[in-house]
Amino acid sequence: MVFHRTDCHRSENRLTRLLGANVMTLKTRLGPFELDSPVVLAPMAGYTDSPMRRLAKRYGAGLVFSEMLSGEGTRRRNPKTYQLAKFTQEERPIVLQYFAVDPRMAADVAKVLEELEPDGLDLNFGCPVKKIVQYSGGAALLKDLPLLGAIVEAAVKATRLPVSVKMRAGWDEHSINAVDAARVAAESGASWATIHARTRTEFYSGRAHWDWIGEVKQKVAVPVIGNGDVKDAEDAVALRNQTGCDAVMVGRGAMGYPFIFREANALFSSGTPLPPPTPRERFQAARQQLEGMIEFYGEERAVRHFRKHAISYLRGLPHSAAMKSEVVRLTSGTEVLDTLEKYFSLLPDKPTARGSTAFEQAPVWG
Questions:
Q1: Choosing from 127, 197, 238, 362, which is the catalytic residue?
Q2: Average pLDDT value for residue range 242-269
Q3: Average model confidence (pLDDT) for the chain?
Q4: Residue-range domain boundaries for the chain
Q5: Topology given in CATH for the domain delimited by 12-270
Q6: 8 is a catalytic site residue
Q7: Three-state secondary structure along the chain?
């Protein structure tokens, strides 16, 4: 059975096709977790730090993942790596993701991270960037499934925490092996598998091949999270409907738009789409994120790191080009908030959808 990705055109007819007469439950089970929402936040390097994860939870994310942690950095207890692993109680359930290149590293890191008391660990077999794959990490392990299985098994045996995996569908178009890789991971003890429906060589180009997610869900016994091109609530429903996946992972669609979680939850639970946020609501979300970052990093570093988030909040909105140029030059939290508040207050006080190019303009990795 083959599943096809739907057109992204927004319309009432599309909602009817997606939902029909059925409304999906929000509850979903992943390993030992019963989640209140099937929509989860992806691990994204440089973005999904503790403040962003907290914001995602406030807007309805069922589960959040850390940025990918270096296996070697974690094993050596590098302070910068530990900073990435820090989380608050508000983020639970929280899964810490890392990459390892051999079973011993996988086990050592699992033991170190268990000390931080997260709710789960996730092994990355999907990162496409050169500096990871050239050392046989990330997506490179899709070319060596026995080693992939040994890494999963070592991590599972080293910790009492549930261990999951996130992977690409294959190295390239000639080696699509998501089913085999997910099966090896499951047989080695993985609690669930997240499938990013692209190959390593595709990076983030083109459309995600959702049919590959459906095949894994059909043929592998563990729960499956679907990932790739979920840019709005309708995509979240479509992906779960068409593939049967247990949960949906949102990455770029959540940048500057935590509202995607509440919108998807509403569509899943009632079949009725929520209106998009007002400018005031957008500003309040941006303010929460920046204030959280100042508390987490200190003001100077927070303002510097928030610039990319500010651009995401502005992306696709009317007359935002000049505002993007201005906000990246500001150096204090007060300046950033005052400038953003002024901009959003000038927009009509009504629900305002993101521009059609907002997702395509979002940054990618590699």
A1: 127
A2: 97
A3: 91
A4: 12-270, 279-346
A5: TIM Barrel (3.20.20)
A6: no
A7: CCCCCCCCCCCHHHHHHHHCCCCCCCCEEECCEEECCCEEECCCCCCCCHHHHHHHHHCCCCEEECCCEEHHHHHCCCHHHHHHHCCCHHHCCEEEEEECCCHHHHHHHHHHHHCCCCCEEEEEECCCCHHHHCCCCHHHHHHCHHHHHHHHHHHHHHCCCCEEEEEEEECCCCCECHHHHHHHHHHCCCCCEEEEEEECCCCCCCCCCHHHHHHHHHHCCCCEEEECCCCCHHHHHHHHHHHCCCEEEECHHHCCCCHHHHHHHHHHHHCCCCCCCCHHHHHHHHHHHHHHHHHHHCHHHHHHHHHHHHHHHHCCCCCCHHHHHHHCCCCCHHHHHHHHHHHHHHCCCCCCCCCCCCCCCCCCCC
